[in-house]
Amino acid sequence: MLALIQRVSRAQVDVEGETVGRIGPGLLALVCAEPGDDDARVVRMAEKLLAYRVFGDDNGRMNLSLTDVGGQLLLVSQFTLAADTGSGLRPSFSTAAAPAEAERIYQQLVLECAKRHAPGVETGRFRAHMEVSLVNDGPVTFLLRT
């Protein structure tokens, strides 16, 4: 499982002109399921998303997590993270989980994060054409893998 996380001041997802997810300060996580992802990897990713220290403490050092600062979380499915770009000029997506399995894993991650994070979780819409807008705070961006 992959997650490209960005510390944001705000972010939102629109589908066909409708806002389906919106957060203020927190994390935007673009999430990709890979073949072989299981319940343990989902739990581990939820733990990492909520505990990864990317927010500044009183000294400006990245020592605080999303949970520590009470930030919001926006999870967006993004199968293109698993693209194989090693050869040619067109990406291959054979390293991403099949759509039905990916959706199950993504929904499981949403539920796991919501269960653990009191401020709640906003989402995009799986398999929809989404317009994601954000203000990256820093910029701060990390690729997490479980």
Q: SS-based structural class?
A: alpha/beta
Summarize the main sheet.
6 strands, mixed
Shape verdict: globular
**Tally of individual helices:** 3
Low-confidence stretches: none
Motif (Gly-cisPro motif, important for rejection of L-amino acids): 138-139
Subunit structure: Homodimer.
Catalytic activity: glycyl-tRNA(Ala) + H2O = tRNA(Ala) + glycine + H(+); a D-aminoacyl-tRNA + H2O = a tRNA + a D-alpha-amino acid + H(+)
Protein name: D-aminoacyl-tRNA deacylase
Descriptive account of the structure:
It holds the Pfam family Tyr_Deacylase. This protein is an alpha/beta fold and 146 residues long. The chain has one domain: D-tyrosyl-tRNA(Tyr) deacylase (D-tyrosyl-trna(Tyr) Deacylase, Chain: A, 3-Layer(bba) Sandwich), CATH 3.50.80. It is 24% helix and 38% strand. It has 3 helices and 8 strands. It has helices at 39-51, 66-69, 99-116; strands at 2-15, 18-23, 26-32, 55-56, 62-64, 72-77, 121-123, 131-145. Strands 1, 2, 3, 6, 7 and 8 form a 6-stranded mixed beta sheet that branches. A two-stranded antiparallel sheet has the order 4-5.
